[in-house]
Amino acid sequence: MSAQYGHTKSLNIAIVGGGLVGALEALYLAKRGHHVSLYESREDIRNTPHVRGRSINLALSVRGRKALRGVGLEQRVVDEHAVPMKARMIHKPDGSTYIIPYDSRTNQCVYSVGRNFLNSVLLEDSEKYTSVEKHFGHKLLEANLSKGELKFLRADTKEIVQVKSDLIIGADGAFSSVRKEMMKQPLFNFSQHYIEHGYTELCIPADKNGGFQMPPNYLHIWPRGNFMMIALPNQDCSWTVTLFMPFINFKQIDTESKLLEFFEKYFPDSIPLIGEKKLIEDFFAGNAQSLITIKCRPYHTLDKALIIGDAAHAVVPFYGQGMNAGFEDCTVLDELFEKHNDDPVEILKEFSEKRWKDAFAISDLAMYNYIEMRDLVNRPSYWLRKSFDDFLFWLVPDFWVPLYNSVTFSTMPYSKCIENRQWQNKMLAVFIVLVTVITFLLYMYTRM
Ligand code: FAD
Ligand code: EGU
């Protein structure tokens, strides 16, 4: 490794949060020869038995895959434990369906992976490093970031555990405690926003023969203007269905008959798949969950603390990029460790400087899509633009990459994806003006 260039000593790094991003970052740091202590407030999910048909899944795309490749886990996750989704299947209110491919040009797809499964694979893989210590049931209570000091509450003994480390990495999710400590420092900017939609998770079980009840290799979508339902396949042939709807509507549906009436009106084809009884059970079992978007900056405190993943940038899920962006943080961070020879001062400074633009960009894209998914899909102008984009992409794929493809199927920085789109908008405007002028001139010419 980089040791031959007189690189700094191996660091003692504390990672707060053993979720998807924290567990992946532990692998990256261990691979570089650092000593990692991972603190997670929950119990080890590897010991939490998997209940059939109750797994929550996520869409994994190119950025996430690249990050997994960096620790040698891409093939295992993609080949053995993911269901490829090669297109969207749109369900119309009358129950009929149609297909929109993800990438008709090169046949790339996105993968549906179980959250707990992925988390388990990442934690399991860290067993091969003796330099990774995992502490479950440790909840961060407070921290002195500039001193590298952390105070945890142990769930089993109710003891307070104090530790000190060279570097703290906060990967403790949207409601990050590490970030709360950062908020005490001057010049730390922060904003959060709850959207008016909430979500609830339902389940379409496997059929009698243990097979899929819907065609498996698709992301199923029921777009209904202000409501939307989507379904991602699980490996056990069940589906996790997520219903997005304004909180007021969740509140209005307070009886079983209102629920069935609502589903019969908007999602009739899904009722026999979920089953009336299960629909009622699952819908009323959990309260609607909220969706928050968070932006902040910088992401670091001196050379002592850094936040990554949702802790640094929680986004709404309407681009399927939250985890992918968090995993990309690990890729970016690893490149900086390499570039700066494991020197925290430079690494943290540059990470904060270069990452916020891309984090803000995916945040804006996801928020924009939240609106687009509901309204634009039903507008002819959206489809006109989409066909135009797809045609040019087919014609000159290196020259014209549509926004969607650049976000999901490339590793172009998110902020570049937006710039690229703005450049395309300008080109289109020029093109439309040109066509109008030429048509007009031709018309005048033929009249003469
Ligand atoms: P988390 O997964 O939230 O993990 C944080 C961890 O920190 C948790 O294990 C928590 O227990 C622990 N923790 C918290 N506080 C403390 C503390 N004080 N002390 C110790 N530990 C603590 N992304 C995609 O890429 N594709 C998708 O399809 C997708 N779909 C989504 C659908 C929905 C409905 C939602 C809400 C999100 C979706 N996302 C998706 C986003 C994705 O879930 C997140 O971006 C991702 O989980 C972030 O990982 P993380 O490790 O940063 O945070
Ligand atoms: C939302 C919640 C379809 C899982 C955005 C597409 C999502 C996912 C889309 C959730 C949609 C929406 C994209 C993927 C993905 C689409 C995407 C959204 C997975 C623009 C479990 N989104 N999601 N876009 O293109 O890029 O298929 O909870 F319905 S995967 Cl909202 Cl690619």
Summarize the structure.
This protein is an alpha/beta fold and 448 residues long.
Indicate the proportion of strand residues.
15-25%
Output the radius of gyration.
24 Å
What small molecules does the structure contain?
A: flavin-adenine dinucleotide, ligand EGU
- End-to-end CA span: 77 Å
CATH architecture of the largest domain: 3-Layer(bba) Sandwich
Number of helices: 14
Largest sheet: 7 strands, mixed
Oligomer: single chain
Helix content: 40-55%
Low-confidence stretches: 1-6
Task: Look up the CATH topology of the largest domain.
Answer: FAD/NAD(P)-binding domain
The structure class reads alpha/beta
Whole-number mean pLDDT: 93
User: CATH homologous superfamily name of the largest domain?
Assistant: FAD/NAD(P)-binding domain
| Number of E strands | 19
From the spread of the alpha carbons, the general shape counts as globular
- Give the spatial strand order of the biggest sheet: 6-5-14-15-16-13-17
What would you say this structure looks like, in words?
This protein is of the alpha/beta class and 448 residues long. It has 3 domains: 12-81 and 114-193 and 293-370, FAD/NAD(P)-binding domain, CATH 3.50.50.60; 197-283, TATA-Binding Protein; 395-447. Helix content is 40%, strand content 25%. It has helices at 20-31, 62-69, 74-81, 115-125, 177-182, 247-252, 256-266, 271-274, 276-285, 322-339, 344-374, 380-395, 403-408, 414-447; strands spanning 12-16, 35-39, 57-60, 82-85, 87-91, 97-101, 110-114, 132-135, 138-144, 149-154, 160-164, 167-170, 189-204, 218-224, 227-233, 239-246, 289-297, 300-301, 305-307. Strands 6-5-14-15-16-13-17 form a 7-stranded mixed sheet. Strands 8-2-1-12-19-18 form a 6-stranded mixed sheet. A 3-stranded antiparallel sheet has the order 3-7-4. Helix 1 (20-31) packs parallel to helix 4, helix 2 packs across helix 3 and helix 10 (322-339) packs antiparallel against helix 11. Mean pLDDT is 93; it is low at 1-6. Bound molecules: flavin-adenine dinucleotide and ligand EGU. Residues 16-22, 39-42, 58-59, 139-140, 171-173, 177, 199, 242, 309-311, 317, 320-324, 326 line the site of flavin-adenine dinucleotide. Ligand EGU binds at residues 59, 61, 88, 110, 219, 221, 230, 232, 242, 317-320, 369, 373, 404, 408.
